[in-house]
From TrEMBL:
Gene3D superfamilies: Aldehyde Dehydrogenase, Chain A, domain 1, Aldehyde Dehydrogenase, Chain A, domain 2. One of its GO terms (molecular function) is succinate-semialdehyde dehydrogenase (NAD+) activity. Belongs to the aldehyde dehydrogenase family. It comes from the Eukaryota. Residues 2-415 form the Aldehyde dehydrogenase domain. GO terms for cellular component: mitochondrion. This is Succinate-semialdehyde dehydrogenase.
Length: 420
């Protein structure tokens, strides 16, 4: 019953909050993010269980006025069934609870396949689910090696017993899973790659824009789905923005061990991730970009990289055509609003976008014109449990969190009662 689902999700939330220090330490040990960020992730993760505990009791149907006197027309919302949940390593706790909270609130059972880099967070959540009284077989975790990931994903997407696939990860992997899911026409929701623009117009408060840029770009060392990947700065304030941004990066960002209290930038997830950052910098510099600060691996070790800022960047460079997923901030100078919007919308993905302006008319125009699922206006951090998370174009299908998130796990059934 919905009341019981609500109570158990609420208890799961309470247990996460009681154990937030241990859960955070698991995240830092698994993926390297600074402990303070990991603690923030656990609070954020738990908030989805709290939110959907409340939403579980608000799955309302409908009564529709019938066109015939001897009929009554009802709409029921019912759980889709078994949901396969495939999650990434960059938020190994939050990406699970955002999906699982909605699924369990709707009355579904779940099979979670965590990223091969971060299975322990998923298993720790499973232990707390047991303690919360979630029945055996409702929250299931299937960890696997990197070599088995593709095979396990294929099974989850093709097994007829699975009714729903929810995936967060790269666009390329999402397309493969969509092909697998098509064979049994499963319900799917996909939160895929981003390429977020961050536009700073001449009217912007430059200091606020710099603070928002720092938060948006360098959280989790640039390894978040909604991280800014391209900075577009109008020519009137371009030089001031770059100068102030460089100073803040050098002053406030500290590369180090995630368990060190001073650390704001932990290691990247693996050496392959570091090599991609290096490749993007090398390509940009070879085409005329300038390294303002950073630009190389950090002396701490092979997976650590200096927070990097590039200027004199063009749209032909790899770092403005591909998602870097690392601590690299390339800055493109632009002249007009129309030019900035055109550059921002040239990507085939559209997850998040940000812009800074103090012109009310411009704010409305640009917010409506940006081809993304989420827009931050004079704000660099936009994720929130109450708000719908998801993208457009090749950034995905469906929304997570908010009042809309539970709909991804519900089927709408129309019932016609005749002969009355």
């Amino acid at each position: 019953p919905s009341q019981e689902r609500s109570a158990r999700l609420r208890r799961w939330y309470e247990l996460m909050m009681e154990n937030k220090e241990e859960l955070a330490r698991i995240i830092t040990a698994e993926n390297g993010k600074p402990l303070k960020e990991a603690q923030g992730e656990i609070v954020y993760s738990a908030s989805f269980l709290e939110w959907f505990a409340e939403e579980a009791r608000r799955i309302y149907g409908d009564v529709i006025p019938a066109s015939a006197k001897d009929r009554r027309v009802l709409v029921l919302k019912q759980p889709v069934g078994v949901a396969a949940i495939i999650t990434p390593w960059n938020f190994p706790s939050a990406m699970i609870t955002r999906k699982v909270g909605a699924a369990l609130a709707a009355g579904c059972t779940v099979v979670v396949k965590p990223a091969e880099d971060t299975p322990l967070s998923a298993l720790a959540l499973g232990e707390l689910a047991n303690q919360a009284g979630i029945p055996a077989g409702v929250y299931n975790v299937v960890p696997c090696s990197r070599q088995q990931t593709a095979a396990v994903g294929e099974v989850l997407c093709t097994d007829p017993l699975v009714s729903k696939i929810s995936f967060t990860g790269s666009t390329a992997t999402g397309k493969i899973l969509l092909k697998h899911a098509a064979g049994t026409v499963k319900r799917v929701s996909m939160e895929l790659g981003g390429h977020a623009p961050f536009i700073v117009f001449d009217s912007a408060n430059v200091d606020r824009a710099v603070a928002g840029a720092l938060a948006s770009k360098y959280r989790n060392s640039g390894q978040t789905c909604v991280c800014t990947n391209r900075f577009l700065v109008q020519k009137g304030i371009h030089d001031e923005f770059v100068e102030k941004f460089a100073k803040v990066i050098e002053k406030e960002l500290h590369v180090g061990d995630g368990f060190d209290a001073k650390t704001t930038q932990g290691p990247l997830i693996n050496e392959k991730a570091v090599e991609k950052v290096e490749k993007h910098i090398k390509d940009a510099v070879s085409q005329g970009a300038s390294v303002v600060t950073g630009g190389k691996r950090h002396s701490l070790g092979k997976n650590f990289f200096e927070p990097t800022l590039l200027s004199n960047v063009t749209t032909e460079m790899l770092c403005t055509q591909e998602e870097t997923f690392g601590p690299l901030a390339p800055v493109i100078k632009f002249e007009t609003e129309a030019e900035a919007v055109a550059i921002a919308n040239a990507a085939n993905v559209g997850l998040a976008g940000y812009f800074y302006s103090q012109d009310p008319a411009q704010i409305w125009r640009v917010a409506e014109q940006l081809e993304v699922g989420m827009v931050g206006v004079n704000e660099g951090i936009i994720s929130s449990v109450e708000c719908p998370f998801g993208g457009v174009k090749q950034s995905g299908l469906g929304r997570e969190g908010s009042k809309y998130g539970i709909d991804e796990y519900l089927e709408i059934k129309y019932v016609c009662l005749g002969g009355l």
